[in-house]
Design brief:
With about 375 residues, the chain is an alpha/beta fold. The protein is built from 15 helices and 13 strands. Strands 2-1-3-5-4 form a five-stranded mixed beta sheet. A four-stranded parallel beta sheet has the order 8-6-9-10, sandwiched between helices. The chain has a two-stranded antiparallel ribbon with strand order 7-13. It is elongated, with a radius of gyration of 24 Å.
Length: about 375
């Protein structure tokens, strides 16, 4: 994450406890900058004030000189839209300037523990973590920028994701949490239990630099481009189901795809069950999907002839995101160029921006 140290941090009385605390905070921060965990932006006067105090710590001193020598050519990057500004004011605030959100955080908050270790990315599982990191790298390519994304995984497990988010907040880490909305149709106004529990954590979070993003689509699988779905390594009946589904989707125009695919259940498909039958909006959406996938069948009669728990639209498989990660690892250059539907482009851009904001760190060759 980008951390700004403004000129207002200068302490005139250099023998004071406040001056010692500021130097200690800079020491801890710069140790983590050396590890490429975060990027830092100094006020020029504060940088000149702090440099002499690190002459005996050669590595940090050298890096501080690097920042001074390159100060005029290293403004806060235009692709950063959220960052931390450390202040002497105990009244912590968040301000928005243009498209940027700046969290003004009291310096004493960073004197205990290890708050400057790598930012945490809390997701529902390891596959989500990997997928969102790849989207961050895609955003980096869009930005045409040379930086590093440094995010430590804090994977939950559906029902434990909110606990992981809470623990990361409690331990004062810079934390980004991304969870599925679990909305089953476009007009659904309620998110799933995991997202709801994470919202409660965010509401009670302090300070403000914890960020929760709930997908606008149902789940991460909806963000997999169709051309990647076509190439996933499936065989037998699963491949047949996948190919039939994608064949039908290929015949749809973009507007229809952009309407149904954000909430289409690629993993499980659709079954006849009591919950489904009692929700008219979910049922109507499933009917619309059915009429795209099974053009030669009539929805109501098909549903009537099924036993409870039988599928009327088969999904691909529960491991579809895992298969997507495998494909990306082997085809990253192609991944950067895949065609995205409008809703996917919007979500990738938003997720990628959050990943960049929270994972922003010096490039591998910095300070070398």
């Amino acid at each position: 994450m980008l951390i700004e140290l403004p000129d207002s941090l200068i302490i005139p009385d250099e023998r004071s406890q406040e001056a010692d605390d500021i130097i200690q905070m800079v020491n801890v921060l710069m140790s983590n900058v050396l590890k490429k965990h975060h990027e830092v932006h100094f006020g020029y006067d504060f940088l000149n004030w702090v440099i002499p105090k690190f002459e005996r710590l050669k590595k940090i001193y050298s890096v501080l000189l690097h920042y001074k020598n390159n100060w005029s050519t290293n403004p806060i990057p235009k692709w950063i839209t959220e960052y931390i500004r450390i202040t002497q004011d105990s009244m912590e605030t968040t301000e928005t300037i243009g498209n940027r959100k700046i969290h003004n955080i009291y310096y004493q908050r960073f004197l205990k523990g290890d708050p400057f270790s790598r930012s945490k990315l809390v997701c529902e599982n390891n596959s989500d973590y990997a997928f969102y990191n790849y989207i961050g790298q895609w955003k980096q390519k869009i930005d045409n920028a040379n930086y590093r994304i440094a995010l430590a995984p804090f994977p939950g497990g559906g029902g434990t994701t909110d606990d992981m988010f809470y623990n990361s907040i409690r331990d004062n880490y810079f934390t980004l949490c991304i969870v599925d909305s679990d909305k089953r149709y476009p007009s659904c106004d309620k998110v799933g239990e995991t997202a709801e529990n994470c919202k409660k954590c965010k509401k009670n979070a302090y300070p403000a630099y914890q960020n929760l993003y709930i997908l606008s689509c149902m789940e991460a699988e909806n963000l997999i481009p169709l051309e990647i779905l076509k190439q996933l390594n499936y065989k037998g009946d699963i491949a047949t189901r996948r190919d039939l589904l994608l064949y039908r989707l290929d015949q749809c125009n973009e507007d229809l795809l952009n309407k149904i695919l954000p909430f289409f259940d690629f993993k499980e498909g659709y079954r006849k069950n009591l919950t489904f039958l009692s929700d008219d909006k979910w049922k109507n959406f499933a009917k619309e999907c059915f009429e795209v996938i099974h053009k030669d069948k009539e929805f109501d009669s098909t549903l009537e002839n099924l036993e409870v728990k039988q599928h009327f639209i088969s999904g691909i498989k529960g491991d579809v995101l895992d298969k997507c990660i495998e494909w990306i690892k082997s085809n990253f250059e192609d991944f950067e160029k895949v065609k995205l539907l409008p809703f996917q482009l919007s979500e990738w851009t938003t997720i990628g921006q959050h990943i960049v904001n929270y994972g922003f760190a010096p490039s591998a060759e910095s300070f070398n």
